[in-house]
Specification:
Low-confidence stretches: 234-240
Distance between the termini: 83 Å
Strand content: 5-15%
Oligomer: single chain
Radius of gyration: 26 Å
Order of helices and strands: HHEEHHHEEEHEEEEEEH
Helix content: 25-40%
Number of strands: 11
Strand order of the largest sheet: 9-5-6-10-11
Number of helices: 7
């Protein structure tokens, strides 16, 4: 009898049904936890992006303290006020050279070695500057942006074969007439702070430094992104449906942009009502859900929502338009 009882005793272990139940429970837990994990990672990336932009804001103000003005968005040729492309007596050199805004900020952003290696008497695309402009700057890269190993290789200005490391931030300095003429933005004075070949002082920002943005996210360049989807096409560069965004390099003279307004889906040409995260073709664009980060003229960084109207964005760009803005409007 004892032997019979032992033979019929149930052995411990999982049945197939029990195993399937456990697997199902684990799958449900993963499905519940994964969005939370992804959200936490994005929150960390967004904080790092904000820190990058705060570093830029600090560098801008250190530059302003040293020079009495903010940096221009770009420089074409001699710029005696900043001692660029001039001889020992301060006389402009005949050679036309172009430089981007970040170059001027390097010594104020703990990048003195890189700045000293850059030749301001040579164009940014010349061989003399090839090593510097190909150097990747973590300060200029948003961690939420896909593929950090991006380079601007667009031939321009008679220069060929140059290669510039991409940057995800640029001066947002104007409202383009097409947005005004189409009625998306009211007529007004929308000149921004950082413009090409001119410097602005704090006194010229009469709308207030805390009400005026200077630098915005324009992530993912030189690839074109529309509503979070990368454009992949054999369409030649320069056609209506371009697959390459110029000005992508952090050292590029053309990294600044203005507000055009695009169709809401990011396709087609401006104008349109969308100002953020529709397309990164010279418009504010980030990989953060719901909006993008901006450096303001007081050095602070603010997140402007996609749902803020295009007129609000225009008012934030303007340095002396007399607009009245509240923080809850964006």
């Amino acid at each position: 009898m004892a032997l019979s009882d032992r033979n019929h005793r149930r052995r411990p272990g999982f049945t197939l049904i029990e195993l399937l139940v456990v697997i199902s429970i684990i799958a449900v837990l993963i499905a519940l936890l994964l969005p939370a994990v992804q959200a936490a990672r994005e929150a960390a990336r967004r904080i790092q992006c904000i820190n990058n932009m705060k570093q830029m804001g600090l560098a801008l103000h250190n530059f302003e303290s040293a020079n009495g003005c903010f940096t221009p968005a770009a420089i074409d040729g001699a710029f005696p006020k900043l001692g660029i492309n001039v001889d020992e007596s301060g006389k402009p050199l005949a050679k036309l050279t172009q430089h981007g805004w970040v170059i001027l900020l390097l010594p104020f952003a703990e990048q003195t070695v890189l700045y000293n290696a850059y030749n301001l008497k040579a164009d940014f695309r010349e061989t003399a500057n090839s090593t510097v402009i190909a150097s990747q700057l973590s300060m200029m890269m948003c961690p939420s942006s896909p593929n950090p190993n991006r380079f601007d290789t667009n031939n321009s200005g008679g220069f060929k074969g140059w290669r510039a490391a991409a940057g995800d931030y640029g001066p947002n300095n104007s409202v383009v007439n097409v947005a005004i003429n189409a009625g998306f933005v009211k007529p007004g004075v929308y000149a921004g702070v950082m413009q090409a070949n001119v410097v602005r002082t704090i006194a010229e920002i009469t709308d207030g430094t805390s009400n005026t943005l200077v630098i915005s996210e324009v992530s993912g360049r030189p690839d074109i992104w529309r509503r979070g989807n990368r454009t992949v096409s054999a369409t030649p560069i320069g056609s209506t449906d371009r697959v390459y965004v110029s000005g992508a390099g952090w050292a590029n003279r053309e990294s600044a942009f203005g507000l055009h307004g695009f169709p809401a889906d990011g396709n087609g040409e401006p104008p349109g009502p969308c100002h953020t995260n529709c397309v990164n073709r010279n418009e504010v664009f980030s990989f953060h859900p719901g909006g993008a980060n901006h450096v303001f003229a007081d050095g602070s960084v603010h997140f402007v929502k996609e749902t803020a109207g295009i007129q609000v964005m225009a008012n934030l760009i303007s340095r002396a338009g007399g607009e009245i803005l509240s923080a809850d409007s964006y």
